Amino acid sequence: MSSSKTGKSVENALVTGEPTTRFFYEFHGERTVDPLLLVNNGIDLWQEQVDRATDVDNWNLWDFAESLLEDRRETPVYSWTEWLRYHIITGDIYPDNWAPSKPYPYKGLLVSAIYFQEARRLCLEGNRDRAWHLLPIAYYYLGMNTTASVKQNASRAARLLHSRRSEKLRALVLGALELIERRGSARSIKEAKDEVYNLIEKKKGSVKEWLDEFDASIPEKTKGRTQDNFKNDVMVRLRNLLDTWSMPSGPYPDISEAFSKFSKKRRAPKGSARRNRVNGEEIKSVEKRYFLRIVNILDDDEALIVKFLLQD
């Protein structure tokens, strides 16, 4: 068994989509764990997963799950909880703001919210025996909307290769976005992409070495051709890359996040703040300066926490 001594190598060992927080329960050896502790930790993980998403706001799912549980009724088969799960899986239950013509991609978050809440209710009522089988189902469905697919992880090596090729070019893009944000001159992601391109185009003489280095690293067969059968030049490829990098699902989260600041949907009036609620309580998003957090639960249920910090 090998070990790593640096945060950077630990970060590289993580695959796309892994949760930031990990709980360990047998720090001092074997022990019995109260299911309510597992429920509360699962809810923490649920909140963390919803908070990390930049492409969609899923905080309403917790209250939606709560309303579904409160609307208990007789069912021909299954318990009320499993009746809900069945109809979520088959596409009969989904949030009001979702178009029924498209499959709902966050079924895992909704089902896990239902099962965590039901398990917590049972624990608080002293019915821990039934809570035990609800817990693994809750964690399983949370994992459906947490872990990246095998296909995504298999492509990671290719992304890392492209990452090395484009490292300096991405630094230019991030620098340009920071300047544009300070100026307040872009009112949409499209305008931000246009301004990034124009800024680098104006300065391409002073950064020619970086542009040439990126251009030379791209194989000829992947450079593409224009309609006139000439190879696309590096600025044309940069403009095409900006379209991909600016997407919420783009390959570089730092650039996606930088572009998202110019989104019309994301902008809010001055003085307003997004309020996220879980179980009726307001949850404040906290900027995380770590990529991995190990929470060791001790015998007295106190926690010993180890954080692996992001590199500035």
Describe, in short, the structure shown.
This protein has 312 residues and is mainly alpha-helical. The chain has twelve helices and five strands. It has a three-stranded mixed β-sheet with strand order 1-4-5.
Secondary-structure map with pairings?
Layout: H1 7-13, E1 21-24, H2 35-52, H3 60-70, H4 80-89, H5 107-124, H6 128-144, H7 150-154, H8 156-183, H9 189-202, H10 208-217, H11 234-245, H12 253-260, E2 276-278, E3 281-283, E4 290-297, E5 303-309
Parallel strand pairs: 1-4
Antiparallel strand pairs: 2-3, 4-5
What does this structure look like?
This protein is mostly helical and 312 residues long. The chain is 51% helix and 8% strand. It has a three-stranded mixed beta sheet with strand order 1-4-5. A two-stranded antiparallel sheet has the order 2-3. Helix 3 packs across helix 5, helix 4 (80-89) runs antiparallel to helix 5 (107-124) and helix 8 packs across helix 9.
Structural class: mainly alpha
Distance between the termini: 30 Å
Order of helices and strands: HEHHHHHHHHHHHEEEE
Beta-strand percent range: 5-15%
**Major sheet size, sense and barrel closure:** 3 strands, mixed
Mean pLDDT across all amino acids:
80
> How are the strands of the largest sheet arranged?
1-4-5
Count of alpha/pi helices: 12
The number of distinct β-strands equals 5
List keywords for this structure.
51% helix, two-stranded antiparallel ribbon, 312 residues, 5 strands, three-stranded mixed sheet, 12 helices, mainly alpha
